Amino acid sequence: MTLSRLLPIFILLASASSLAFALTSQFLFDKDPCILCLYQRVPFAVTGLLAILALRLNKSSSLISLIVIACGLIYLSGAGIAIYHVGVEQHWWISGCTGSIAEDVTLDQLRASLMQKPEKACDDVDWTLFGISMATYNVFFSSLLGLVTLGAGLQMSKTRKREMVSD
């Protein structure tokens, strides 16, 4: 099997397993996601779809290396979202997703919010393993996926260019 097939399969498996883990945590273990948790899922969904697109292309297509490079950049943007989330969890910076009430809330707005199911605050950590939150694990996982995928995509692109020059 060629690299132009292995890399999209790797990306698809990494993305699908990450989303499966997140959804399993949510629905089987009742770990409600906050809005930043949901945002962290987007890069995995996008890279999974791009991997499917790459697998549908002819294995000699030059678009595959571009898709792999794009997936690497998307994973790195996911790491950025996760870094932001960790900062909110650790109270390194202020976010609109914390569990605090805004100071300029009217009595009617407060009554209306009491009637709704509260949104999960982004600084409320539900689950840790060895004292590390899921968002922190995602920083490392997305960074690693991004660097590996970006490097492999750039290498594939260079190899492809050399093959085109020698032909």
Overview of the structural elements:
This protein is an all-alpha fold and 167 residues long. It has a single domain (3-166), classed as Bromodomain-like. Helix content is 69%, strand content 2%. It has 5 helices and 2 strands, in the order ααααββα. It has a two-stranded antiparallel ribbon with strand order 1-2. It starts with a helix and ends with a helix.
Topology:
Layout lengths: L2 H25 L7 H22 L6 H27 L17 H9 L12 E2 L2 E2 H33 L1
Antiparallel strand pairs: 1-2
SSE class: mainly alpha
How many strands in all?
A: 2
Helix content: 55-70%
Query: What is the CATH fold-level name?
Result: Bromodomain-like
CATH architecture: Up-down Bundle
Rg (C-alpha, Å): 20 Å
What is the terminal-to-terminal distance? 22 Å
Estimate the global geometry from the Cα principal axes.
elongated
Counted by DSSP, the helix tally is 5
Order of strands side by side in the largest beta sheet?
1-2
Which blocks of ≥5 consecutive residues have pLDDT under 50? none
Name of the CATH class:
Mainly Alpha
Brief descriptors of the model:
167 residues, mainly alpha, Bromodomain-like, 5 helices, 69% helix
